[in-house]
Give the backbone structure.
Amino acid sequence: MVRFLFLLGLSVIFLSLGQGCDNQLTQKKKGQPSSSQVKDSTSSKKMETYVWPPVGNEQDVEIASDLTAKNYYVVLDCSGSMAEKGCSKGRPKLEAAKKSLAQFVELVPADANLGLLVFQKDRIKELVPLGKDNRSQFVNAVNSTSSGGGTPLHSAIKEGYRRVEKQGRQQLGYGEYALVIVTDGAANAGQDPTTIVQWILEKSPIQIHTIGFCIGTNHSLNMPGRTIYKAADNPTQLSEGLQEVLAEADNFDVSEFDLN
């Protein structure tokens, strides 16, 4: 009888201890995360780091044969003001730009990709996709442009970025990338490019070069320390500004970006 009571007492003690442990585990689950949960949370924060180019549907991406190629994507302003002759030696500014771009093409390395997007007559259109064996096509496309319409800088730069980002995915993030903007005026109302330019500079390794033709340095795309801006007051300076793009690209360091 005594032995029975002793065993019964031990059972009660073990049962109480078990309930106490269960209560502590329940409170821990309710009140604070476990060490594994904290670790998972930390890992999640690390994964929030932006990687360029952003992951898309990789099944639709044709991987480039040259992953380290340089890329120059020109955004040309063909707005109505490019018909003016104020500082272009009696020729329309667009004609001076055409000549300067033809000279620029001759200096672009043969193993670099070159592309062209224009805005004219209130339309934004890619005339030449990024590619290598397209120099004659580029010059012909530039020569086919005419002036007219406004200056939708924000939309044009955003579209230019989209095209360059696509190339970035094809090169798996490797290589070098430059948006080269040739413009002669302020953006339309609602088309201030500041926000899109800041986003591109913060999220990608893309350089943004702007040649401001006959507009001085007071322009929204002139962001000292961020964009590379060249004020061109005549056709000669316009050509020099385009040539400097190639030199600046050679000195650009992309090591600070998380590329894949």
